[in-house]
Amino acid sequence: MADKDSLFDLIPGYREAVQKERAVRSVSFIEAPEVICGLKVRPLNMRHIALLEALGNPFMMGGAPTAEDIAAFMWIVSVQFKPFDIEARDAFIRSISFMDASELENEIVQFMDEAWQDSPSGRDGGPAPTSWAAAIVDAIASEYGWSEQDIMDVPVKRLFQYMRRIRLRNDIKAVFIDPSDKLRAAWLESQNKTA
Predict the structure, then answer these.
(1) Do residues 161 and 118 lie in contact, with contact meaning Cβ atoms separated by under 8 Å?
(2) Do 180 and 12 meet the contact criterion of CB atoms below 8 Å apart?
(3) Where are the domains of the chain?
(4) Helical H segments across the chain, by residue range
(5) How many CB atoms lie within 10 A of CB 91?
(6) Residue 133: its pLDDT value, please?
(7) Within 10 A of 60 (CB to CB), how many other CB atoms are there?
(8) Neighbour tally for 162: CB within 10 Å
(9) pLDDT at 124 exceeding the cut of 70
(10) pLDDT tens-digit profile of 80-109?
(11) Which distant-in-sequence residues (6+ apart) come within 8 Å of 72 by Cβ?
């Protein structure tokens, strides 16, 4: 079997995919806004997710987003977001109304993909006994002693990395799936078909 360095040379795009994963992980620890279509946004955190879920926003719940869904998402993650400030919300939505909705949608999807990159895999079987947010707060608070309020404000890109560290500390044989693994798996499958 080829080692990882040679796979970088064999699999088109694999090196770049792994580099992107590393960059997403590293940048998540920089206290700076992210950007969607040139607009500054806060890194996705659990408060954002809870609000988006409560609104039934398709970027969290699935489905095709409307222009209103896109505007709501952008407002919630915007650095300008102020809960219950209708005037600020309306001014923000007017300010982005000229933007290309499909471009916004594509960049929101990329923003979400990066945020969820290191998320724990789904649970098999029946319904979960608690919300996923409760599971993350419980794990992080138990491991590090952080308060619920502090955890809710940490970007999920960082929380998911902490969750991986906790899992690895408790199970040295833990297996993690990265987005770049899809490229490697597809390449290996194509090699097996030609062999």
Answers:
(1) yes
(2) no
(3) 4-117+131-194
(4) 4-10, 14-27, 46-54, 58-61, 67-77, 86-96, 101-116, 132-144, 148-153, 156-170, 180-194
(5) 11
(6) 81
(7) 17
(8) 18
(9) no
(10) 999 999 999 999 999 999 999 999 999 999
(11) 52, 55, 57
Name 35's bridge partners. Answer: 40
Q: Which residues pair with 155 in a beta bridge?
A: 45
Alpha-carbon distance of 195 to 185, in angstroms, equals 15
Within 8 A by CB and 6+ apart from 110, the residues are: none
Both tokens assigned to 68: 């209103």
Per-residue model confidence as pLDDT tens digits over 185-195: 888 888 888 86
What does the angle CA 73 – CA 76 – CA 81 come to, to the nearest 5 degrees?
Answer: 145
| pLDDT over 50 (residue 123) | no
Tokens of 134: 């409760």
For the CA atoms of 40, 45, 48, 50, what is the dihedral angle to 10 degrees? Answer: 170
Which one, of 171, 181, 167, 35, lies nearest residue 117 by Cα? 181
Say if pTM beats, i.e. exceeds, 0.90: no
Secondary structure (3-state) at 145: coil
